[in-house]
């Protein structure tokens, strides 16, 4: 703990020794201290990786924004137009990738709905865009093979949540 208070990083071995201090050194206590030390180390590595990534994102954002401040207004507008074209092209690429997904399954009944019908329409009938529970900043599309499955899925999700203030009748 002293090392952490001084702003340094304790190694796994030091954390293991710290975890065993004043304890009976049974196999179970050694294993418990070892797991705790490794978990702390992994958490520290992840924290540093996230911090480095965030610094890179902030730097990239500054690089993208700088021309709006530095260039003449006419050139800034041209730059904006170029970025809009890139954004639009990227959107088309992402849509194509989504539309050409393999192994798309109905969210409710798990039936395979990937591919297209003979009339070139997709096999899925309905899609919804929902926020991902594990990653709140991201969303994902879910697919249904029929309106019945979509309605049943919504009904199942609302059970017990008191959604809409009704009991579903």
Summarize the structure.
By secondary structure, the chain is mostly helical. It is built from 5 helices and 2 strands.
Structure, explained:
This protein is mostly helical and 169 residues long. Helix 2 (12-20) packs across helix 3 and helix 3 (27-70) crosses helix 4 (73-99). The termini are far apart. Strands 1-2 form a two-stranded antiparallel ribbon. The protein has 5 helices and 2 strands. The protein has 2 domains: 2-97; 103-161, no CATH class. It is flat and about 70 Å long.
Topology of helices and strands:
Blueprint: H1 2-5, H2 12-20, H3 27-70, H4 73-99, E1 126-131, E2 139-144, H5 147-158
Antiparallel strand pairs: 1-2
Helix pairs in contact: 2-3, 3-4
Can you summarize the main beta sheet? Answer: 2 strands, antiparallel
Encode the helix/strand succession as letters: HHHHEEH
- The order of strands across the largest sheet is 1-2
Distance between the termini: 58 Å
Helix content: 55-70%
In terms of DSSP E residues, the strand content is 5-15%
Low-pLDDT residue intervals, each spanning 5 or more residues? 1-9
Shape: flat
User: What structural category do the secondary elements indicate?
Assistant: mainly alpha
Oligomeric state of shown chains: single chain
Quickly count the domains: 2
